């Protein structure tokens, strides 16, 4: 009597979900039943339910497979094939009878998911196809990173930035999509920054990618959260890794200039244009530094009438000459002042201060002031 009671109770706790699923005659409806009850299913019931789902998915995918074979598959066909792959993988995952063979039988259809993810513009579809491939992939699957890229792309467009970053990080390893995946990864991490800790995690991620490539972004984050002590470490690390990192010299020169250490800043800006003679911002900052040196001499050394004499006059004149010469390089590289719109006004000012009024008038004509 006791055994009968126990058996009845066990049956009540484990209803025949496989029968319920089969009765729906529809994979999506059956999947809903499975998902709602899977946490309460014992292993044997779950295995039978998975097999029932697989049977529904196979039946629904039959025509889709025919269309694939005929080369006329639609997105709806791809969705049915995705259901078939997912159902087969579920059988393997839960240890259903014959699950390994069931999954082997659909392996040839898995690459279709990559093409389907690539060809659809619908983000939900793209994500579904990509995840179908990813979830059923073995370790070191050569196409899993590519599928991860499509998952990252879809998640980013759906504004699920945490998952976009997760999948993009995996996709970075694929040379075919490396650059795009890295871009999505960085943009997604930036979108998730809410706290100081988030910012520092973002910095760590950028450093892991390439500290020199993302030098400006890291610098700006440290600067925005008041970690100036980290900036000098960043500069030292970057220059140790690459002694020709022009960005590190540019930032170091700027910081020295902010501390009124113009002569030291000047050496850094000279290094910048030595490394990259076509770097407009390098020449512009070099010019401003020369101008600051000249202005500093004028401020500290001029008499009450604003006059300089001897070595002070010479040093001031040479500084203005340096400022003008650097801006002439900017002029050559940026003739229409599209990159730096105010260089003509500064160049005219330096020429006027040097007493070169003809050159100042030339600049006035250039910008239409005469």
Would you mind describing this structure in some detail?
The structure is a single chain. The N and C termini lie far apart (111 Å). The protein is an all-alpha fold. Helix 10 (161-171) runs antiparallel to helix 11. It is elongated, with a radius of gyration of 34 Å. The protein is built from 20 helices and no strands.
| Estimated helix fraction | over 70%
Mean of pLDDT? 92
Shape: elongated
Strand content: under 5%
The secondary-structure class comes to mainly alpha
Radius of gyration: 34 Å
* Element order: H for helix, E for strand: HHHHHHHHHHHHHHHHHHHH
Sheet of most strands: none
Give a quick precis of the structure.
Helix content is 75%, strand content 0%. The protein has 20 helices and no strands.
Set out the fold topology.
Layout: H1 2-13, H2 17-24, H3 27-37, H4 43-69, H5 75-94, H6 99-104, H7 110-119, H8 123-135, H9 144-157, H10 161-171, H11 178-191, H12 196-210, H13 215-224, H14 228-241, H15 246-258, H16 262-275, H17 280-301, H18 310-333, H19 343-353, H20 357-366
Helix pairs in contact: 2-3, 2-4, 3-4, 4-5, 5-7, 5-8, 7-8, 7-9, 8-9, 9-10, 9-11, 10-11, 12-13, 13-14, 14-15, 15-16, 16-17, 17-18, 18-19, 19-20
List its traits:
370 residues
